[in-house]
Amino acid sequence: MVTNTANSGNLLYWSSAGRSYQFTILVIACLALGGSFFLPVLSIEQQFWIVIVPIGVFGLSHGGADTSILKKLTATSKSNVLLLLLAYMLASLAFVALIWTLPLVALLVFLGMSVWHFGYTDEAFLSSERDLLLRCLSGSMAVLGPILGHPQQTSELFSWLIKIETSAVLDVLVWMGPLLAGLWLLGFAYMMLRKSNRPSLRVLAEWCLVGATLIVLPPLLSFAFYFCVIHSMRHFLAISEHCLLSNQKSLAKAFPARKIIPSTLGALVLAIVAWGIIVWIEPSPSLLTEAIRVMFWALAALTFPHAIIVRLWWDQRPAE
Q1: Alpha-carbon distance 184 to 145, whole Å?
Q2: Among 23, 67, 111, 126, which has the highest number of CB atoms less than 10 A from its own CB?
Q3: 234 near 121, Cβ under 8 Å?
Q4: Which residues are within 8 A (CB) of 200 and not within 5 positions of it... i.e. 6 or more apart?
Q5: Is residue 19 within 8 Å of residue 128, measured between CB atoms?
Q6: Are 226 and 54 in contact (CB under 8 A)?
Q7: pTM to 2 decimals?
Q8: Beta-carbon neighbour count of residue 250 at 10 Å?
Q9: For binding Fe cation, which residues are annotated in this chain's numbering (predicted)?
């Protein structure tokens, strides 16, 4: 489960930028936890309007370096870049087809892919070694938190995505949530008792504060907190530490706008067009429902190829 071979995650685990930002995560989590006690009960619609801009800005732009990653994977060969770019687009379209024909399967694949992708990014900042168990525990928190803390609203969101009754989804989540939480705690107990690569104090502090925040916040705010504050920013840090877009390691200078903005705007335009097409083909009495579908399914369609190429780039980097 754990290998002692040096890997590219070492650089990020020991980096001063990664450690400093982890402190920022803890501070934001504390503020979010404190603020949650004064937060009124928010409907899904209210949550949607709060998170749409952060998710659009941070969520979409964090994949803006994908074209540069493709170039790295193909040693700058233009023909190979075009082939990989075509494969990237076909993978997204294939996932859209899966959403259209088998939405339940698509949702399960999306959740599984998210856990894998989130965990792989977290692992580089939370462990100096490859650790499958740590990856699973950390990556699953963003999915498990809303299920445990707000099963009713989470069920409603899932039901909109797969177009079935909310009560049917809730019936599954009310027993699956505690079961998954029990498995998570068993994995955590094993990690604490094993002889090697036990989580450090800073990892435990992050898991406690972030886990509590993900449970307490309403589901869309919980997702936005993890996706924007933790995952996207850590992706930015990984890119800047490895000088993928710029030879500057400063986070503010590592992302030339000309390389990030076009792909981000393109993704936004595609999402808006997709929303219009869905509303035209399958009119719904609730535009909010369609907006939620477009937001999550657009992220899902982009996550599928994005997670794969990021993993390929991650594994091709020289050991630190």
Answers
A1: 11
A2: 126
A3: yes
A4: none
A5: no
A6: no
A7: 0.86
A8: 10
A9: 62, 117, 231, 235
Specify the length of the chain in residues: 320
Structure tokens at 303: 């996550």
Euclidean distance between CA atoms 96 and 103, whole angstroms: 9
- Within 10 A of 175 (CB to CB), how many other CB atoms are there? 9
User: Do the Cβ atoms of 114 and 140 come closer than 8 Å?
Assistant: no
- 62: amino acid identity, one letter: H
Residues 6+ apart with CB under 8 A from 224: 50, 51, 54, 55
Residue 235 marked as a ligand binder: yes
Interatomic CA distance for residues 239 and 249, integer angstroms = 9
Residue 62 marked as a ligand binder: yes
Distance from C-alpha of 156 to C-alpha of 162, rounded to nearest angstrom: 10
Residue position matching structure tokens 């892919």: 113
Whether residue 150 is annotated as binding a ligand: the answer is no
Q: What is the pLDDT of residues 182-193, one digit of tens each?
A: 999 999 999 999
Judged by phi (left if over 0) then psi (alpha if -120 to 50, else beta), residue 285 lies in: alpha
CA-to-CA separations, 123 to 97, 113, 212, 259, in angstroms, rounded: 31, 15, 19, 27
- Name the residue with tokens 């590219």: 8
Q: Which helix (H) or strand (E) holds 165?
A: none
- Those residues with Cβ within 8 angstroms of residue 1's Cβ, 6 or more apart along the chain or in another chain: 131, 132, 133
**With pLDDT > 90 as the criterion, what percentage of the chain qualifies?**
44
> 3-class DSSP state for residue 199?
coil
Q: Using pLDDT thresholds of 50, 70 and 90, give the confidence band for residue 165.
A: very high
Cα-only R_g, the chain: 19
Nearest to 206 by CA among 16, 36, 22: 22
Q: Using alpha carbons, list the distances in angstroms from residue 80 to 8, 76, 91, 299.
A: 25, 8, 16, 25
Q: Which residue, among 255, 141, 266, 127, has the nearest Cα to 194 in the 3D structure?
A: 127
